[in-house]
Amino acid sequence: MNAGQVEPTGRATEVGAGGRGGLGTVRNAARLLELLGEGPAYQQLTDLAERSQMSIPTVHRLLRSLVLADLVVQDPRSSRYGLGPELTRLSNHYLSRLPLLGALGPYLGQLRDQIGTTIHVETLVHGEIVYIDRVDGDGRGPYRDTHRVGPALGCAGGRLLAARSSDEEWARALDGADELDRIAALQDGARELWAAADHLAHDPADPTLQAEVAVPLLDGQGGTVAALAAALDRPDDPAIINRTVGHLARAAHAAGRTLGHV
Q1: What CATH number was assigned to the domain covering residues 23-85?
Q2: pLDDT tens column, 33-71
Q3: Alpha-carbon dihedral 222, 224, 225, 229, rounded to 10 degrees
Q4: Would you say 43 and 33 are in contact if contact means Cβ atoms under 8 Å apart?
Q5: What is the distance between the alpha carbons of residues 50 and 205, in angstroms, rounded to a whole number?
Q6: Residue 125 pairs with which residues in a beta bridge?
Q7: How far apart, in Å, are the Cα atoms of 212 and each of 7, 103, 244?
Q8: Architecture of the 98-260 domain
Q9: Where along the chain do the CATH 1.10.10.10 domains lie?
Q10: What pLDDT, on the 0 to 100 scale, is given for residue 18?
Q11: Which segments in the chain show pLDDT lower than 50?
């Protein structure tokens, strides 16, 4: 069957350009991995086909290939599919080669000692904030980081990065935000204000999430590549925020100079 032809189910064999073995196959496999990263840990074949708008035979064929590569696993009891362990290995190889972390590495421990709270390095990927490095403070209190990925607009660093990103990324961030964060982001001038800010502080309504203040980290070309954030024990104290921002900004500036020479 040629690319673009329709199987008996009525859906196209592949979504996007390219046929089997081509760019379309890669895009479709990536789409399935993205869907497996959403919702429950293990998902049914029919649900994945419905959500991806691909036929069941196409999804089954792609999943079999992904299982062979350990990028996906299949639960032997339920026959449902979930993300595989190979993604962890690849992600760690990616992070170990990331110039950004090499540039920030010498400063994170110092920052934690100076500020006394947990330090995060955050990047924006497909409308979500990804915590790619952290140094824990001594007294972390009742807060827990149960996930290293979350809605971008739910934290200060994510708001900075989303506001400075493309319109497509901003739209993705809005789609993934909860109601209160979406309302705040859609206020007149909010995006422009966040994009122009040299720092942002945010205290989430969710009591299980800690407040933070973040500054942007710029590369040698002036592009915003990450946010450097610190947890705030006293988000209502301007003096603490200003002191914390000073330490974060100096570290971000020094790391940015290093990135300019990479």
Answers
A1: 1.10.10.10
A2: 999 998 899 999 999 999 999 999 999 999 999 999 999
A3: 130
A4: no
A5: 34
A6: 128
A7: 51, 22, 10
A8: 2-Layer Sandwich (3.30)
A9: 23-85
A10: 39
A11: 1-20
